[in-house]
Amino acid sequence: MRIALTGAWGQLGTALDAALCAEHTIIPLDRDQIELGSPATVERIVASGADLVIHPAAYTNVDGCARDPGLAYQVNALGTKYVALACRRLGVPLVYISTNEVFAGDAAQPYAEYDATGPVNAYGRSKLAGEVVVRELLERFYIVRIAWLFGGEQNFVRTVLRLAANPPEAGLRMVADEVGSPTYSVDVAAAVRQLIATEHYGTYHVVNTGAASRYHFARVILDQAGYTALPLQPIRLADYQRASTPPPYTPLANYAGAALGITLRPWEEALAAYLKAIGDSR
Ligand SMILES: NC(=O)c1ccc[n+]([C@@H]2O[C@H](COP(=O)([O-])OP(=O)(O)OC[C@H]3O[C@@H](n4cnc5c(N)ncnc54)[C@H](OP(=O)(O)O)[C@@H]3O)[C@@H](O)[C@H]2O)c1
Question: What's a single GO BP term from this record (predicted)?
Fold first, then answer.
């Protein structure tokens, strides 16, 4: 297939390109080719003549989205509308990458694919609007929700490793009452490769198995990277000031993918693979 890939050099885009390029022809559409905030995006994608479009590009800075919700909406909601309109014109399916932050985070157990959404911040609202527009405009789509992604140069794992190498005087502190599904970009990309061959369109939760608080995730990162003796203090979400309000509890349950045989390994194993890949496992 000819696959048009937005955000091709972002964290997930890079992993998708690597996972798909042996089997498919990838048409990378980065900022040089498309600006999601502009309706001209429709023509640009139509001109690619793709058989499938994968759309991970987004304004992903959650605090930036909180400060400028209008920009978040333009890029993540209207930008996704332009991508969906292009798919409609081409008559091809779309893979839209969405997020755990479409949920409110007040559930008692992991969210299933068709649980009610209820975003609590501007980023989540803009990404949910992207889902709405995909469902509104297309018959053939995969909405792939992912969470707490690591795999590129800038992510939670890298932040923890940076802090461990040069710990602040006050010591390391991590939020213990924000819980999610840590997920490796390489594993998401492999799952998307499987999913697009199924033609089982719909909504999916593509996350590594298991869940963790930021505190627990950080502890495992430190231990796996050899910083076993480095102390780590738990703090509360309420004590960590930031522009965006994260939903506190958003582990995602993968029912729809699992029914097709698409499951991801436990996040601890995926983390070990990532640390090995970046050479920080000791
Ligand atoms: N990271 C996470 O923890 C996480 C969790 C849940 C869901 N997700 C979703 O997963 C997807 C991929 O995330 P990621 O971490 O790989 O993101 P990323 O590394 O920030 O990459 C985003 C990509 O989108 C491009 N982009 C941003 N604004 C654009 C615009 N206005 N027009 C055109 N392209 C634009 C970026 O280009 P530039 O580099 O040129 O800006 C970059 O290539 C996103 O849809 C995100 O919402 C991520």
Answer: dTDP-rhamnose biosynthetic process
